[in-house]
Prior knowledge:
There is one protein chain. With 401 residues, the chain is mainly α. Among the domains are: 46-151, Serine Threonine Protein Phosphatase 5, Tetratricopeptide repeat (Alpha Horseshoe); 305-389, no CATH class. The protein has helices spanning 2-18, 31-65, 69-82, 87-100, 103-116, 123-131, 134-159, 172-187, 196-210, 215-227, 231-243, 246-258, 265-268, 274-286, 290-303, 308-322, 330-348, 354-367, 371-400. Residues 1-21, 158-163, 261-269 and 379-395 have low confidence and may be disordered.
Amino acid sequence: MGGQAKGKKGSKTRRKQKGKAGEPDLSGLSTHDRMKIKMQDKARKKTAEMCSVEQLLEKTEDCLDNFNFELAQMFCQRALDMDPTNLEILDMLGNICMELGNIEKAKQVLLKAVELSPGTGHAKYMYLGQIHCKDEAIQYFSKGIEIMISAHQTQPQLIGASSCPDKMEVTSKDISTAFCSVAEIYFTDLCMEEGAGEKCKEAIQKALEHDPNSPEALQMMASYLFSMEQTQEGKEYILKSVASWLPSMQKKEEELLNQDPCDVELLETALPPYESRITTAKLLIEAEEFELATEVLEALLEEDDEVIQVWYLLGWVCYLQAKAPDEDEAFKDSARTYLRKAKKLYHKLKCDDSQLMEHIEQLLTELGADETLQDSDAEEAALENIEDDFVQSSEDEAMDA
């Protein structure tokens, strides 16, 4: 029995010397050689781990390309768990959380990136500026702009030429857009603060210094000048803003119609955002550029015909044209049509902007809208309510069953 016990003990010792499965047998090696092999093994594991992070980031990029932000967040979070101090991953995850509307998570991730690298990377500061309000937003935007300008100044030496914007990390357009963000805050949230007007104008001027043909900066200067009752100067800026993109839009429309009418993405990327073009139309109406305003609004309708504001503005601009001397009834008819469509959409989409509805009703009254059409609207609204009640009651009965 003693021999058997001894044999078992020796077998256990040998298994221990061989090590765990998958690990090298270090028995018989000197301390120095054992340490060297362990270090090499650790480096291999680290390399394998980094490859996994790279694969996760590739999956994240694929998901972002397909606008699958939920799955992108999962892959990106897993990559961050493996490499918690990776700034690229932190920026990417912050961006994804912003897209998903998860503001608190985005703030947490972006502030961690700021803590790790406060002096580099402008994107995190721009996102934090969007998250915060008033003075805090100004601080984040200002820091981001500082980093952007510094990066932009050093880029020509890094890439060999300053005329390759596709290869540049920061462009003049990026800096201009950032200054517009600062101006917007002074124009809205901080408009009642002392000196806000001058600071707003200064930010817009800096935006135009970096990109003199920026539609956004030109439009913002027009808004500022109109608010200062400098109508003629404001008109010049809004016309210049529209001239920077409307002709190219018309040309691209013709090209797409001649080539591939379904390829609308090429056209959309060259245009200011939808909401920005609604603001453009408002400023054009204020400048009494009614035909140009109508052109912009009709183009917006072609993109989306269920935006109440667009129908209302079309009705408003036709109403204003109808009030001009020697105008025929055509503008009145058009105004009625557009305003009635705005009214229908208001009820259909359950809008809660009571002031907008009051103005629509006021304009229709002044235009002398046809009573027959008003009765038709009332009947149609009643039918829609009956249908909604029927659907709701049917659902309730199904649930009870």
